[in-house]
From TrEMBL:
Entry's family note: Belongs to the glycosyl hydrolase 1 family.
GO MF annotation terms: coniferin beta-glucosidase activity
Keyword Cytoplasm on entry: no
Name assigned to this protein: Beta-glucosidase
Entry annotated with the keyword Oxidoreductase: no
Keywords from the UniProt entry: Glycosidase, Hydrolase
Leader sequence segment: none
Gene3D superfamilies the UniProt entry points to: Glycosidases
Organism lineage string: Eukaryota, Viridiplantae, Streptophyta, Embryophyta, Tracheophyta
BP terms from Gene Ontology: carbohydrate metabolic process
Length: 514
């Protein structure tokens, strides 16, 4: 969500400010938009915390000009957002393109560019037309590949003359985990020991889903490179989420478990896009259900990203489940025969947050960026998400005076700076998120934003962290501004000077490096 870091070793260009419209957009049936899988899922009692839904979300559909102004006032030079599939193609390929949806996103893109902010567009972020789920099971079917290709082509044609940074799909591994292993996202498939759903197979379905998503990505990138890239001059990648992992015990088997955990999460998605096949750590323990790519598919899959989008929040311990007994599904292939936890000998790996398994472990940022950089030949990386949610017990006044979020960003950005000094080619960094929003199954209780949103009035109020970022991006060290100015942040944002140096978007940096 923000740009950030002036570094001695390397100058970064294009800070990114992140917002994902399926979380903030609202307007769920306005101007021709169709029903999405999330529209249906959130209206079923019990699926979302407090039975909340995203019908209005942050009402960005009507307030996007105000939100773009807020982003500009912070000093960011890039803004990450996502397309709502059902707003562009309400019925997928079984219907027509919705002109109202195209018009809405054109307004956003044009307004950002007028403000000197680069659009960083994600084509698919979890939500999809419900009709595709009803007709053929969405991502469980290879038919979904062609539906996604149509969406991507529509976006390239409609927005590609101005959008220069594309990501095809956000977090295929998280989507598979939450929708087909744990059953907490639509279509709510799972099986024991991961959950008790009415339908699903957690050992097989996630493999099929990710395979179809990767092939859809590969086809979209092939189309973009053959028909649009040379004329439009953009770059294209995919976003993956990955924890970092550390051995639970000081034994070789747990060190190998760390390698498997990394391969069965980020590597599961990135290896096919860089090398043309799933990680050898997965093939080594493969069952017949792990799909294979044909020679033709391998040809267009290999090298099908110009950059890596990396979402990172936390670090966990990993324990081997091949030679040791494990619980909670760690002994399953889908988990890489690895048990992961945030606790060792009664001590947490880092401060807990408001999200399960998201602990504050800044060193993990340096380690995961270093790992990704080395495994994938120092390919350009954008940190596309990084942020902090306070424990849900915090009172409202503390939500505005969010000192812990400032500490989080400071620590994680310092760790990112260390990774860059070691040679990682990090091109940008996005903070998650610009404002509190609808956080999927967590509803509105998880608050990652730099801005607080009043659920009744939709007023946006800057938190302490927003003021910190504003000054940080204006290239001032913590020693140069008056801390008292941050104690009672005012609701009116102030435009700040853009740094000529650069910078990244989301998580933290050491003020001494600025």
């Amino acid at each position: 969500m923000l740009k950030v870091l002036r570094l001695k070793a390397k100058m970064l260009e294009d800070l990114n400010s992140q917002i994902t419209f399926c979380l903030v957009e609202g307007g769920y049936l306005e101007d021709g938009k169709g029903l999405s899988n999330w529209d249906v899922f959130t209206h079923i009692p019990g699926n979302i915390k407090n039975n909340e839904n995203g019908d209005d979300a942050d009402d960005d559909y009507h307030l996007f000009l105000e939100d773009a102004e807020i982003a500009q006032s912070l000093g960011v030079n890039a803004y990450r957002f996502s397309i709502s599939w059902a707003r562009i193609l309400p019925r997928g390929r079984f219907g027509e393109v919705n002109p109202g949806g195209i018009k809405f996103y054109n307004k956003i893109i044009d307004n950002l560019l007028l403000r000197g902010i680069e659009p960083f567009l994600t084509i698919h972020h979890f939500d999809l037309p419900q009709e595709l789920e009803d007709r053929y099971g969405a991502w469980l079917s290879p038919l979904m590949q062609d539906d996604f290709l149509l969406l991507a082509e529509t976006c390239f044609k409609s927005f590609g003359d101005r959008v220069k940074y594309w990501t095809t799909i956000n977090e295929p591994n998280v989507f598979a985990e939450m929708s087909y292993v744990r059953g907490l996202y639509p279509p709510a498939h799972c099986s024991p020991p991961f959950g008790n759903c009415s339908v699903g197979n957690a050992d097989i379905e996630p493999l099929i889903v990710v395979h179809n998503m990767l092939l859809a990505h590969g086809k979209a990138v092939k189309l973009y490179r053959e028909r649009f890239q040379s004329k439009q001059g953009g770059s294209i990648g995919l976003v993956v989420q990955s924890h970092m992992y550390e051995p639970l015990r000081d034994v070789e088997s747990d060190r190998q478990a760390v390698n498997r955990a990394l391969a069965f999460t980020g590597g599961w998605v990135l290896d096919p896009l860089v090398f043309g096949d799933y990680p050898p750590e997965m093939r080594q323990y493969h069952r017949s259900e792990l799909p294979r790519f044909s020679s033709e598919e391998t040809e267009y899959m290999k090298g099908s990203i110009d950059f890596i989008g990396l979402n990172h929040y936390s670090t966990l311990y990993a324990k081997d489940c091949i030679h040791s007994p494990c619980v909670l599904g760690g002994d399953h292939f889908i988990r890489g025969f690895t048990f992961t936890t945030g606790e060792r000998d009664g001590t947490l790996i880092g401060e807990p947050t408001g999200v399960e398994r998201f602990y504050v472990v800044p060193r993990g940022m340096e380690k995961i960026v270093d790992h990704v950089s080395k495994r994938y030949n120092n390919m350009p990386i954008y940190v596309t998400e990084n942020g902090y949610c306070p424990p849900l017990t915090e009172a409202a006044p503390n939500l505005l005076h969010d000192v812990n979020r400032v500490h989080f960003y400071n620590g994680y950005l310092a760790a990112l700076a260390r990774a860059i000094r070691k040679g990682a080619d990090v091109r940008g960094y996005f903070a998650w998120s610009l404002m509190d929003n609808f956080e999927w199954a967590g509803g509105y209780s998880s608050t990652f934003g730099l801005y607080y949103v009043d659920r009744l009035t939709m007023n946006r109020t800057p938190k302490l962290s927003a003021k910190w970022f504003q000054h940080f991006l204006a290239n001032r060290s913590s020693a140069r501004f008056n801390r008292q100015r941050f104690v009672n942040p005012t609701p009116k944002s102030r435009r700040v000077r853009k740094s000529k140096y650069i910078v990244i978007a989301t998580t933290n940096a050491n003020a001494t490096d600025v």
